[in-house]
Write the structure tokens for this entry.
Amino acid sequence: MAGGHSILITGGAGYLGSIMAPALLQAGHKVTVLDNFMFRQSPLAHVCIDPNFTAARGDARDEAVLKPLLKKADIVIPLAALVGAPLCDRDKIGATSTNYDAVVTLTKLMGKTQRMLMPITNSGYGVGEAGKFCTEDSPLKPISLYGVTKVAAERAALDRGNAISFRLATVFGMSPRMRIDLLVNDFVYRAANDRAVVLFEPHFKRNFIHVRDVARAFMHGIDNFEDMKDQAYNVGLSDANLSKWELCERIRTHVPNFVFVEAPIGKDPDKRDYIVSNSKIEQTGFAPKYALDDGIKELMKGYAMLKNSIYGNV
């Protein structure tokens, strides 16, 4: 691919973007990141030296901000979103306007030849049938506002055409804009710091994928766009359809004195329970590179550096 593409990433300074943008630059693409930098971090400081990198501060919902940036882009990756059920429930209007309306705005402003690669969540599958894998043809039954907005955004992108949607498993791994609240990241943090975790509904299963493999899936989509376009693809580790209890058992192989127990009361607010097939994207030649165990080891190193103690003297 001579010369690379010109790529606009909205929300490109987030957990996914701060891994994806440097990877795209390294592959020879021009990358513009639009972000409101709401998390007050500078996760892209190390790529500012790259002449192919541009940073823009602004709101991904604002047409006046988007129009000039879109003129220069042949690929758009809308990562800007309020991600996760709790954050969306706290700001329902923000969630709907960012996760859905902003994508609809993009579909209206984009030219016919411009391509969109979009992440949604495989939590759109909601509660699956026991022992039955969710494929891209399985019905979408999202249970959280987050899931609902992302499923609607996928529909808008695919209806417009010239788009690929990636239905991401629960992402894990270190990123310059870290999220400790994601399930694997959270449990490893607790194992590293508290040596214990209390599990709600520990038999609930879900699928997992490393943040660097998410970036690799998007790059795979860019390189194979014509063959993959106008479809949705599950992106996860096929050997990691695990329950929370099984996940804790895996973490315990790295942190031997880790204790986990089932909560006698209470429910998990995030009701997801399903197993996922990733064979569709695997058949296009994509294979993840980072195993769950790689991520656990990486996170243990990361948490030696990262202490989430914004308040308090210790």
